[in-house]
Design goal:
Largest sheet: none
Structural class: mainly alpha
């Protein structure tokens, strides 16, 4: 094995570990960029190839910008606070009903605005609403974390990782629904059932208010809600027409934000300032590191292993790769795992259900631990702002109960 390849892999492993662990509490993006820069400056990856890697992520960058703009606008206009308070009112004093309603709201937000929106903006709204209702917030906050991943493959727009895995090979909407409708239903239902069972005692022993102070949804909030529906329609149409989703998402996000801000005569600075721009260099750095894996032959070796497994038994290969990918998410985070898995699948062209198993592993596997996905990390950040600390072990204990049934059911639905 060439020593250059070993050094390059060592840099990638170290950078990925730092993205997850965040030494010195520095942002994740810094470590991804440092890893990418080290590969280029030390001569393990030509700068031209690094630019190729960055260019491969253009569709993902545009998608993220559009989604983050509309999500931040919805947060500032109080749309999520309104929805959370509405859920408390419809719960009518029943913790069990409130749990279900928040799960439904989280599912809708994840499907139409991506799992990151559920983690970033719905989580604080749920915390505020449950505190106002006199409920223990933690069971309802767990809903936000788990549904963000469980519902993230209903549509291509439900998770940026979907764009990472498929890239330019994104299936048309009808094909996507054929592949993922039943697995998504299985994932959402099984996640709810097991999560609800684990929180049964807590919900049974508490009482909550029948109503809470209801924030008024202003004109800007109503326009934002209309804009979200319009974005959903446009993106579903783009998927149906087999068009890449990045540019339509970007245009929809910018246009919706511009219309709302112009009508309400607001400055764009609060919206722009609230967007997590550091996500873009984070993803860009990961794309560069995956390009280094391609150049050093890792992707080719993994493709050969997958090809060999598919030749022996495509069904066994699908189960193996789905479970292995789900576990790998929790070791290295699902964005880099998704990039590697997408490159492997793209170079070998395995059967559709094998690629489906890979995507399900990438999207649903992160529910096992707090390090599994960017959405779960963002969920933790949202909790820290509210002075709530969730340790890795308590989350892992819950994740080990919730994730396996949903993962097995979703894979079974995809592979059968």
């Amino acid at each position: 094995m060439p020593s250059d390849a070993i050094w390059a892999w060592s840099i990638i492993v170290a950078a990925t570990a730092c993205v997850i662990i965040r030494p010195f509490r520095l942002p994740e993006a810094i470590w991804a960029v440092l890893g990418a820069a080290a590969l280029v400056l030390l001569g393990f990856l030509p700068w031209q190839d690094a630019l190729v890697g960055i260019e491969k992520g253009v569709d993902v960058y545009l998608f993220l910008i559009g989604m983050m703009l509309i999500a931040e606008l919805a947060r500032l206009e109080g749309l999520f606070d309104y929805l959370a308070a509405l859920a408390v009112e419809y719960a009518a004093g029943s913790p069990q009903r409130l749990f279900l309603l928040i799960y439904v709201v989280g599912t809708v937000v994840t499907v139409l605005l991506s799992n990151d929106a559920t983690a970033i903006v719905l989580t604080p709204a749920v915390y505020a609403a449950t505190r106002a209702a006199g409920a223990k917030p933690l069971p309802y906050l767990f809903v936000c974390a788990f549904i963000a991943n469980a519902a993230s493959f209903v549509l291509p727009i439900s998770n940026p990782a979907n764009l990472v895995v498929f890239g330019a090979r994104m299936p048309q909407l009808t094909e996507w629904l054929r592949l993922f409708a039943l697995p998504s239903i299985a994932s959402i239902l099984l996640t709810y059932i097991v999560l609800r069972l684990t929180q049964h005692r807590t919900l049974k022993d508490e009482t909550i208010a029948r109503s809470v102070p209801h924030p008024k949804l202003g004109r800007g909030g109503k326009l934002t809600a209309i804009g979200i529906v319009a974005i959903g329609v446009v993106l579903v149409a783009a998927s149906a027409l087999d068009t890449q989703l990045g540019l339509p998402t970007f245009i929809c996000g910018v246009v919706t934000a511009a219309i709302v801000l112009l009508i309400s005569r607001q400055s764009p600075l609060p919206v722009l300032g609230g967007v997590s721009w550091s996500v873009l260099p984070l993803v860009g750095g990961l794309f560069v590191m995956v390009e280094a894996l391609i150049k050093t032959g890792v992707i080719g070796q993994l493709s050969a292993l997958l090809h060999q497994a598919v030749e022996q038994s495509a069904t066994k290969a699908a189960w193996s790769v789905g479970i292995a990918t789900a576990i790998a998410d929790n070791v290295a985070n699902n964005l880099p795992v998704g990039l590697v898995a997408g490159s492997v699948a793209g170079s070998d062209h395995p059967p559709a259900f094998v690629v489906s198993a890979i995507l399900i592993g990438v999207d649903l596997g992160p529910n096992l631990s707090v390090t599994g996905s960017l959405a779960t990390i963002l969920w933790l950040v949202a909790l820290r702002r509210e002075k709530i600390e969730i340790g890795a072990w308590p989350f892992l204990k819950l994740g080990m109960l919730v994730t396996p049934p949903a993962l097995i059911a979703a894979l079974a639905a995809a592979i059968s």
